[in-house]
Amino acid sequence: MVIVQQVIHYFLHFIFPLGIALFFFRKKWKKTYLVFLLTMLVDIDHLLANPVFSACRCSIGFHALHSYPAIVIYIFMLGHPKLMLIAIGLLMHMATDYIDCLFINFNCK
Ligand SMILES: [Zn+2]
């Protein structure tokens, strides 16, 4: 199950955003994909946690930038043209991490 989780995780973190960039932002897909990749920096909040990485911990609702209030802010950012791409990237990231949390229920009992 861990392998399935990791394949889905990296697919959603790297390939799926590329598909979104190519399909919906065809004329500037490279810049769009770069913005999506840069939203990975949101994981910097893991550095505040101890331990930094824990396979059986759900990021969503635990780390500051993965908290529900933060996610609400990302949703509001969708409405601002200059922040929209960042918001899409962040929300895809949160969805990916949330799917990981579903696997944690299988892997960590
Ligand atoms: Zn994350």
Question: Secondary-structure blueprint of this entry?
Answer:
Blueprint lengths: L1 H23 L4 H10 L29 H10 L6 H24 L2
- With helices defined by DSSP (H or I, 4 residues minimum), what is the helix count? 4
Question: Low-confidence segments, ≥5 residues, pLDDT <50?
Answer: none
Main beta sheet: none
Helix content: 55-70%
Number of domains: 1
Structural class label: mainly alpha
How would you sum up this structure in a few lines?
The protein is an all-alpha fold and 109 residues long. It has helices at residues 2-24, 29-38, 68-77, 84-107.
Keywords summarizing the entry:
mainly alpha, single chain, 4 helices, 109 residues, binds zinc ion, 0% strand
Please tell me about this protein's structure.
It is a single chain. The chain has 109 residues and is an all-alpha fold. It has one domain. It is 61% helix and 0% strand. It contains 4 helices and no strands. The model has no long low-confidence stretch (mean pLDDT 94). Bound molecules: zinc ion. Zinc ion binds at residues 42-43, 59, 66, 93, 97.
